[in-house]
Amino acid sequence: MEAIREGDRILFITEKGKRYLIEARRGRRFHSSEGYVDLGEVIGLPYGARVKTNTGSTWVAAKPLILDEVLNFPRVTQIVYPKDLGYVILMSGVRCGSRVVEGGTGAGVLTTMLAYYVAPGGRVYSYDVEEDHLENAARQLERVGLREFVELKHGDLTRRIDERDVDAVILDIPTPWLAVANARMALRDGGVLVSLSPTIEQVVETVETLRDEGFADISCVEILLRNLRVRRGMTRPEHLMHAHTVYIVTARKAYKLGAAADETFKA
């Protein structure tokens, strides 16, 4: 049984389903519309314990997941949402020991999730053209204990990618098609490229460039997420849903037909 210690971050899930990520500190209170909790009184309790506010509302003190942490990062840019994060991780094949190039860093949400999966043996090389994005990402990575697995780089992937023989290149930039050639040089043979774009015009440019560069297994998906309101005798979909966020293009590096530098091998 793991007990809450002073300084630990706790995910409070309230009786009304609200979620708050708060540090356990003696002498402090956390106030909400459902009353307040004395943060010193939760120290020593096991994760999963139920606590009551001064108004009698019952909350659960849960241990936060890495997803809970990243969803609380400052939104300095649009973020990659959970429904898309899982697909990106799965289709890129990122795992412990992987070497991954990312562009751009943005709010650091995808950066942190990639670091979480490549640790402890891998590395993420994350590029961004805005230095303040890199500085913010460094702070967030430090806070969740993943800073050592990420190299933050001030640069533009459409101009240059320094790394070679990486397992995956993940693009979340306005003009991903301009980075495809550089991504191809950076990837190991059979490595995976993933591109995230909010508009279909970006997708068309990217897919056509991937074809021109000899990539194979090209696909494009849009992931929709619809929650259900579960009540006995009246279960139905929620009226609101997380619909379009991005289109996700994936492809694998293959040898280019007819290119002298990329002779096609036959079994």
Helix content range: 10-25%
**Class of the largest domain in CATH?**
Alpha Beta
What are the low-pLDDT stretches, counting only 5+ consecutive residues below 50? 263-267
Structural class: alpha/beta
- Fraction in beta strands: 25-35%
Strand order of the largest sheet: 9-8-7-10-11-15-12
Q: How confident overall, as mean pLDDT? A: 95
From the spread of the alpha carbons, the general shape counts as: globular
Radius of gyration (CA) equals 22 Å
Task: List the keywords.
alpha/beta, disordered C terminus, 267 residues, 4-stranded antiparallel sheet, 2 domains, 29% strand, Vcp-like ATPase, Chain A, domain 2, single chain, Rossmann fold, 6 helices
Give the arrangement of secondary structure elements:
Blueprint (H helix, E strand, L loop, with lengths): L8 E5 L5 E5 L5 E4 L2 E4 L10 E4 L5 E5 L3 H5 L11 H11 L6 E5 L5 H10 L4 E6 L2 H13 L6 E5 L11 E6 L8 H7 E11 L2 H13 L3 E7 L5 E2 L6 E2 L9 E6 L15
